[in-house]
Amino acid sequence: MTVAAAPARFTGRTALLTAAGSGIGAATARRLAAEGASVLVTDVDAKAAQRVTEEIRAGGGRAEDRPLDVTSPDQWATAVAEAESWTGRLDVLHLNAGRNLPGAAHELDDAAWHDQLRLCLDSVFYGVRAAVPLLRTARGAVVITSSVHAAIGFKGFPAYAAAKGGIDALVRQLAAEYGGRIRFNSVLPGAVVTALWAETPPEYKAQTIARTPVGRLGTPEDIAAAVAFLASEDASFVTGQNLLVDGGRSISSQE
Ligand SMILES: NC(=O)c1ccc[n+]([C@@H]2O[C@H](COP(=O)([O-])OP(=O)(O)OC[C@H]3O[C@@H](n4cnc5c(N)ncnc54)[C@H](O)[C@@H]3O)[C@@H](O)[C@H]2O)c1
């Protein structure tokens, strides 16, 4: 028996990624490009998106970048139009923008609550609305970055948990709505070492590792691998799912 090398799963495909100038989004852009995708790297931080694009090109991949603030429906329309004019298609959409704005419910003002939902949840609606026509034509896939906060309770992040939980409900609705034409799934990262974790005290990191069965924090590449799977034909029978990629944090006891 001859064992053939696995083909690059995204050859001839175009992917648009948000918040891809750093962390999980950047790792996913690198991963999809390494597997043959043409990647449109977007971020509100234009310079960060440009750095990732240059890195991918230097490695022989195909990438373009553009600034995109995911909370702006107008900017979404332009970004999707640019993807279309670049390669004529859109196969993969990774909706990844998010940041946790802490505050217990009794301390949150209206503005903080709405800011959190606008960044993490409204932005997903804007992106899907703009991209559905192209994705439908390409029979594409959407992967949205949710969070372990959608699955288990943590003190101090009610708005973040509500926004991420909204994503997980929304993928089921969208998967049902668009059936065989577009697949929708979410990934729920646990603790992943990115800029979000830069300010985290060492004791909290140690405590998190102790509560994580695999015994380490996650890497952006751990999440990129899961996003690539869900976006690929390997997952052609998977839709409407919320995949926890958290080293088992959500199934371990709190002790
Ligand atoms: N790192 C973790 O432990 C962790 C855990 C669970 C979920 N997540 C989720 O993963 C996603 C990525 O997080 P990360 O840790 O890679 O973050 P990161 O801080 O490394 O990168 C975030 C990126 O988002 C960009 N951004 C911020 N506001 C934006 C906007 N309005 N429009 C477009 N881009 C914007 C920033 O410029 C930055 O490049 C987020 O949705 C986050 O909620 C992260």
TrEMBL record:
Coiled coil: none annotated. GO terms for molecular function: oxidoreductase activity. Transmembrane segments: none annotated. Its EC number is 1.1.1.-. Pfam families: adh_short_C2 (PF13561). Gene3D superfamilies: NAD(P)-binding Rossmann-like Domain (3.40.50.720). Belongs to the short-chain dehydrogenases/reductases (SDR) family. This is SDR family NAD(P)-dependent oxidoreductase. It comes from Streptomyces cellulosae.
